Amino acid sequence: MIIGIAGGTGSGKTTVVKKIVESLPEGAVTVVSQDSYYKDSSHLPYEVRRAQNFDEPRAFDWPLLLEHLNMLRNGQAVEEPVYDYATCSRLPGQSTHIEPRQVIILEGIMALVDPEIRKILDMKVFVDAESDERLIRVLRRDVAMRDRTVEDLVDRYQRIIKPMHNLHIEPTKAYADIIVPQGGSNLVAIDLLKQYVLAHSGL
Fold it and tell me: Taking burial as the number of CB atoms within 10 A of a residue's CB, which of 70, 98, 179, 188 is the most buried?
């Protein structure tokens, strides 16, 4: 069973995924992070890499992501790329070994964007949150973990994140089987997701 969990930057997707994983039997779930599948741009100068728009579909390596999801569905392990936000590139020669499980969760801002990816998803989820809440979460996360300044992040939010969200991410809500408002704090929706997975995955 492959579940796609999408939503805007800072919407609470990771929290939702974590709570679903914690609520299911140990070892039953494997998580694939769409963020790991940004195109490799290590050949470009750092300033060019840093200035890239990471919030549009062409930033992702869709063929590789689709290949890996199909491999996991067919019971084959994959080597997920390791993407470094500090250098804005993949780490050469490094990967994360991912074993196939009964439940595979694809998490990412554009998990529901690509039509070929959508075709293989058994369940499509969109995690929703107010734009001001998402901005606060992005500021807290990226200043602490991704070597960004508040000024850089506010500028990027206004120039890129917000317009790209409205253009590419928000419309994919229409493809969702379930919409989870209030992100990871919506325990009722998370429990419903858990019950559905238990009923349809053979766990």
Answer: 98
